[in-house]
Each structure stands twice: as C-alpha cells, then as structure tokens.
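Schema walk-through. Below, the input block comes first and the output block second. Nothing else is stored per chain. Lengths vary across the set, and this one has 273 residues.
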Amino acid sequence: MSGPIVLSGTQLAAELNAHTAARAAALPFAPTLATVLVGDDPGSATYVAMKRRRCSNHGLDSRFVHLPAETTTVELIRVLTGLAADGGVHGILLQHPLPPQVDERAAFDAIPVTKDVDGTSSAAFAAAALGRTGHRSCTPAGIVRLLDHYGVTLESADVTVVGRSAILGKPLAAMLIQRDATVTVCHSRTRDLAAHTRRADVLIAAAGRAGLITADMVRPGAVIVDAGFTPGDVTPGAAARARAASPVPGGVGPMTIAVLLSQTVDAAEASAG
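--- output ---
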C-alpha cells in the first residue's frame, strides 16, 4: 500500500518564486523589502538572513535594520514610521518575537497596510476576515495555496486548526471560513483535543509543540498540514494515517517565504501603478 500524498511546499514555492522573479524583473526598479530585527536572538537572526538571501536570489533588494535588544516601543515605532515614509521601501517585515518590553501589537500596527507584506497588522487580519483586498499573513496564505495546489476541497470541509496565534491560527481560520470551510480552532485550553482532531477532514497543526498530534488523534484518510517547527507537531505515525500530509521540513516553511516575496512584489507593483 502506498503512503500518503506528500504536500511538497518546496516544489510549489519554487514555481511561485520563479513567477515572482519574472514580475520583479519587469519593474523599472528592484522591489525592496526592509527587515527589522530587534535584539540578537539566534533563530530570528538566521531566519532574517534566509529571507534576505531569498530576496537576492529572486531579483529583490533588501534593507536590514538591526536594533538593540533594549529598544523601546516608541523607538521601534519611530524606525517603522521612517521606513513607511521611504519611497524606496515597498515592504516592511518586523521579525518576531520581540523583546518583552516592546508592545508587539502597537509595533505591527505601525506598519502601513500597503507595506505590511508579512500580513501581521490588525488591518491585514481584518482584510482576511472580511475577504477584502490586502496582504495576507504569509504562513496561512502559504497553507491555503498549498491545499489549493493539491486539489484539497475546502468548501464544506470540516477543518480543525490546532493553534490560535495572531500570525497563524487566527488569520488561517479567517481565511478558511472565507473559503466556506467549517472551522474548529483548538488551543491549550481545549478539552479533549483528540475528539476535535478526529472529526477533521483537514487537520492543520500549528501549535509549535513537537509530536503533539499522534496517530490515535487522526481520522484515517484526512489531510494533514504540519505547520510546526522541526521536527513538526505531527508524529510520523499520525501522518501515515492521512491520504495527504505536508512534510517538515519542506512543507509549509518554503511557502511562507515564497508568499512574502510575492507580496513584496505586489506592493512594488502597486506603488508603480
């Protein structure tokens, strides 16, 4: 018996990146993404460096702003406001998490919606929830593109999202509802998590807890998307029960950055138009 279909984000991201590069080359200027990093968290620094490399590889420029760990909310917003006013910057990405003294929501909301290519502001969330035009939160948007590419039906599907973060679980649920899915959002206070996950036609694990989803929590034949960090929120045994499952790594991760680059070019095209 063959295993589940692999929902390869690596393959789809390569296709999207090629299209993004072609669009960038057609502009009379290089689309520019400003990345802002507060502090010296090694994981965040690595992730920002990866995004900057991907920009360079696909015809985008990047501008790196590195602020000290003791930066205040007021100081950070001043930097973001300056980037917002800079006509040479088309997209702004504020790397999270931020140090505890920074009001993360106030900082995200200081990024104007036209340049919020990471889709982290309250305005971007509202646009996703209401089905309005705007940049989407990159990881949820990447997940929806992945499901569409592999022909996974969302209309009338029972979808369970495990995780309710402001940049993943909540905006993803909003996007899925716009696609006429019936969505259940589970979290750390959910009673009997397995009772919810077993009902799902599509199960999306986005809690950031390795091995959270085990084989007994999955309905045979479900579609599983693992949005967790390596080694993933879904155990190999759970993925084996699915008809299709995304790998970690190589599933959701590549799609997140591909959507970020695509939305940066969207913003550049809008500024040119």
